[in-house]
Amino acid sequence: MERQSNLADLVSNAVNGAQVVDLHTHLFAPQLTGMNLAGIDELLTYHYLIAEVLRFESVTPEWLLSQPKSVQADLVWQSLFVDRTPLSEAASGVITVLSAFGLDPQSKNLREARAFFSARDPVSHLDEVLRIAGVDHVTMTNDPLDPLERKSWDEKPEIDSRFLSALRIDPILNDWPSSFKSLRSNGYDVSVDLDDQDVAEVRRFLDDWIGKMRPRYLAVSLPDSFSYPEDSQRNCLIRSAVMPTCREHALPFAMMIGVRRQVNRRLAGAGDGVGLADLTAIERLADDHPDNRFLVTTLARENLHGLCVVARKFANVLPFGCWWFMNNPSLVEDTTLMRLEMLGRSFVPQHSDARILEQLIYKWSHARRSIARALTTRYEALEDSGRVITKDDVKRDVTALMSGVASEWLGLTC
Ligand code: HDL
Ligand code: ZN
Predict the structure, then answer these.
(1) Is 20:402 a contact under the CB 8 Å cutoff?
(2) Contacts with 205 (C-beta within 8 Å, 6 or more apart), sequence order
(3) Closest ligand 1 atom to Cα of 269
(4) Do the domain assignments include residue 358?
(5) Is the Cβ atom of 137 under 6 angstroms away from ligand 1?
(6) Could you tell me if residue 314 is inside a domain?
(7) Looking at CB atoms within 10 Å, which of 15, 182, 195, 381 has the fewest?
């Protein structure tokens, strides 16, 4: 027992002390005006909690989503935190954030929390959140077809170097029949047909935005129905525009697979569901494009083992994180243990997917606990096999898992 608790403490301290490179978030550098979300009302109206509160309260989604955020937040707090124990991961995350700032998680109302967050200076608050969360770099999700975001980029902002860009191209790949109109209105000579000229214009669009944003990867979320090869506009754009562009700019392509958008439209941002992905699509893409690198995460728990097998077959595939419905402590621990058993440390155990600034604190604190447990289990098995685990082993492995592998794939390491 003595040995185990020493090893567990050694690993836990190393994981808790390791700085993180966060591979995927919905946070924005302060220079991208009007894009950032922070504070207690945003934390409590996170779409995960909106979905949860509708399971307990006899209000309609339409009524709830039509209320001011403060009314929504008051209802969420009363229902999930006062009338009931905040048992879910998303609810317990708010508790972790409040405790990190010394606020009362047992409070009956939001007066103290609102006063605290509204008094914060945004610049020092950002610094403190990143310090508490132990995050060195935050990768954004940047959509050049979002008018508000495009306006910011067109002003050539000097982006805070702690924020990395990722060029997100869902509308182009998943909805060409309508997104081509946005490209047209932004000066690209494209049509719905997607002929060679259109593909050339899409490449010009990607090159232009890679020049403006300097992204670390291109990204797309894909439905469970995603298949490759396939005679479709999405496949044509991936093969003829995205793959050569990523190779030319030496950028990975991130595929986040298995989402079924708007299974319940009434819930708006909270209305997406999950589906089982066909992993042969990743195999075929990785096999057809050996000089491209693929960051892959899947939304269905049932896809995780298969993704580890695909990654064992194709070194240009890097599993990353426990995405969205997978981001629960039990699943993060199980998934990390499975990945360690099958891939050694050639994967990225977690990304936060944070939407609200202070979520970085809980998403990383909770993930660290799970990752440390999984790593300790592997070390214990190794020691049982006769390999002594040294402090240097732990430091080297933890640094790779929490930042080293991500830094390498994002081009942060020189
Ligand atoms: O598509 C994505 O990047 C997802 O992460 C969605 O934004 C989702 O709504 C989400 O916030 N998941 O955590
Ligand atoms: Zn996301």
Answers:
(1) yes
(2) 144, 172, 183, 186, 188
(3) 9
(4) yes
(5) no
(6) yes
(7) 195
Q: Which residue in this structure is represented by tokens 């690198």?
A: 293
Give yes or no for residue 2 having a pLDDT over 90: no
pLDDT value at 125 more than 90: yes
Q: Is the pLDDT of residue 185 over 70?
A: yes
**CA pair distance 364, 35, nearest whole angstrom:** 22
Contact 152, 160 (CB under 8 A): no
Domain membership flag for residue 40: no
pLDDT digits (tens, 9 = 90+) for 314-365: 999 999 999 999 999 999 999 999 999 999 999 999 999 999 999 999 999 9
Per the CB < 8 A criterion, the answer to whether 401 and 21 are in contact is no
Domain that holds residue 326: 2-34+136-410
At 176, the amino acid letter reads W
DSSP letter assigned to residue 358:
T
CA of 24 to the centre of ligand 2 (A): 6
| In the predicted structure, residue 5 carries a pLDDT above the cut 80 | no
| Model confidence at 1: pLDDT above 80 | no
User: How high is the pLDDT of residue 101?
Assistant: 98
Whether residue 72 lies inside any domain: the answer is no
- Total domain count, the chain: 1
CATH no. for residue 315?
3.20.20.140
Three-state secondary-structure class, residue 7: helix
Confidence class of residue 392 from pLDDT cuts 50, 70 and 90?
Answer: very high
98 close to 39: Cβ distance less than 8 angstroms: no
Question: Among residues of the chain, what percentage have pLDDT more than 70?
Answer: 99
**Rounded to the nearest whole angstrom, what is the distance from the C-alpha of residue 390 to the centroid of ligand 1?**
38
278 close to ligand 1 (CB < 6 Angstrom)? no
Ligand 1 atom at minimal distance to the Cα of residue 327: 13
